């Protein structure tokens, strides 16, 4: 797990409402495309005003004013939503001013050009649901619907009645969507914070363990080195004994450090499964990953080898496969040779450009063989499948069995 002190939050946790369209945006261009897609859906309500300007038989001055008013209205609307869906929304006062301007323009255009323009109040309702705080949106959306009905009494009561429910529903629906997005963002930030705290705790644990392992040994080496230095001129035999003790203590310290590092480096299958889910999701691959595997009685070497196999397989899927889906299964099977734990990773990608097994699969095969396991990898239908098997129970002690 990696973390930095400068910016502990991942990129997706900082994108805010930009997550409206699903997975975090990969770059600024992708983010812009998502915003355009999300906002462009609602521009369907402009068809009625545009049709009215083209075929409504207004005067030249009325048509020109209508086009100008519509352009200003749409510009304010797009500016408000684009900015509010980014990382730095407009200040609350400016948001209220822009929404008031949209309401004024919608009212003016409806009164001047007719009932075909009542659909502009749908945009006002959307803006209220997206940009305003929840409490403010709860009264602003009904106020928008009431304003439309008042205007509709002057220009077209029937059209206003038809749009009343839509204006209310679309506004309150947007408040729900925005609240869901904000909750998702907060959860991502909380998850990033937890990850940062876990990384810091792991650093502290490593520091404590190294201190406990090496503190006494290094102090003893220092003391005996000083004693050897004092004894060397007059008592070379005693100095040689101190040097021998120094060698013994240093060798034991080296063994302790190696054992500790081996424990730190040993991967766990549950942790690798969680990491696989995160990696596949971040790469835009639909992932089906089991939660907690049954590892009762599974030797540490077998679990470690299977965890390495999962890490290598997921790395290949993310980097080389071009897959859209990936399925991971961990199953305990009973075979003629005993119980085995089987890991399968299958995707629907191309399998990468390689013509044969790469260094990663070769090394993985060797690692599994040391743990008494096997590896199978190759094309499966339209995708690629990797199957790793390891013993699910410790090997019997042959020597003790013959005694």
Verbal overview:
The protein has two domains: 1-265, no CATH class; 269-401, 2-Layer Sandwich (Heat Shock Protein 90). Helix content is 65%, strand content 10%. It contains twelve helices and five strands. It has helices at residues 28-40, 47-55, 60-84, 92-113, 120-131, 134-155, 157-231, 236-265, 269-282, 300-321, 359-370, 398-402, and strands at 286-288, 325-335, 338-347, 374-380, 383-391. Strands 1-2-3-5-4 form a five-stranded mixed beta sheet. Helix 4 (92-113) runs antiparallel to helix 5 (120-131), helix 5 runs antiparallel to helix 6 and helix 9 (269-282) runs parallel beside helix 10. The longest helix is centred in the middle third of the chain and has 75 residues, at 157-231.
Write the layout of secondary structure elements.
Elements: H1 28-40, H2 47-55, H3 60-84, H4 92-113, H5 120-131, H6 134-155, H7 157-231, H8 236-265, H9 269-282, E1 286-288, H10 300-321, E2 325-335, E3 338-347, H11 359-370, E4 374-380, E5 383-391, H12 398-402
Parallel strand pairs: 1-2
Antiparallel strand pairs: 2-3, 3-5, 4-5
The biggest sheet amounts to: 5 strands, mixed
**In the residues, how many domains can be counted?**
2
What is the tally of helical segments? 12
Shape: elongated
Strand content: 5-15%
């Amino acid at each position: 797990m990696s973390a930095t002190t400068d910016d502990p939050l991942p990129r997706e946790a900082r994108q805010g409402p930009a997550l409206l369209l699903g997975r975090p945006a990969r770059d600024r261009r992708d983010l812009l495309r998502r915003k355009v897609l999300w906002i462009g859906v609602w521009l369907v309500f402009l068809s009625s005003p545009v049709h009215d300007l083209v075929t409504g038989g207004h005067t030249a001055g009325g048509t020109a004013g209508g086009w100008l008013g519509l352009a200003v209205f749409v510009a304010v609307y797009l500016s408000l939503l684009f900015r509010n869906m980014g990382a730095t929304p407009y200040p609350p006062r400016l948001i209220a001013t822009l929404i008031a301007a949209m309401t004024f323009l919608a009212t003016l255009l409806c009164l001047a050009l007719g009932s075909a323009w009542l659909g502009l109040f749908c945009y006002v309702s959307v803006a209220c649901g997206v940009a305003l705080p929840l409490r403010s949106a709860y009264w602003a959306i009904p106020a928008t619907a009431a304003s439309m009905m008042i205007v509709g009494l002057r220009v077209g009561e029937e059209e206003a009645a038809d749009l009343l429910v839509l204006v209310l529903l679309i506004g309150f629906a947007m408040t729900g969507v925005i609240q869901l997005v904000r909750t998702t963002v907060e959860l991502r930030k909380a998850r990033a914070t937890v990850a940062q705290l876990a990384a810091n705790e792991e650093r502290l644990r490593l520091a404590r363990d190294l201190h406990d392992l090496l503190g006494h040994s290094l102090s003893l080496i220092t003391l005996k080195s000083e004693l050897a230095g004092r004894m060397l001129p007059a008592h070379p035999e005693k100095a040689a004994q101190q040097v021998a003790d120094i060698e013994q203590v240093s060798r034991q310290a080296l063994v302790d450090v190696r054992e500790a590092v081996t424990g730190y480096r040993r991967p766990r299958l549950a942790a690798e499964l969680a990491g696989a889910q995160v990696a596949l999701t971040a790469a835009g691959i639909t992932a089906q990953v089991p939660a907690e595997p049954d590892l009762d009685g599974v030797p540490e070497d077998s679990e470690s080898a299977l965890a390495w196999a999962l890490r290598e397989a997921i790395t290949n899927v993310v980097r080389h496969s071009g897959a859209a889906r990936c399925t991971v299964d961990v199953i305990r099977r009973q075979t003629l040779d005993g119980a085995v734990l089987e890991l399968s990773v299958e995707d629907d990608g191309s399998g990468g450009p390689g013509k044969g097994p790469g260094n990663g699969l070769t090394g993985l095969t060797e690692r599994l063989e040391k743990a008494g396991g096997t590896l199978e990898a190759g094309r499966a239908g339209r995708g690629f499948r990797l199957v790793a098997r390891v013993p699910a129970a410790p090997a019997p002690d042959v020597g003790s069995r013959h005694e």
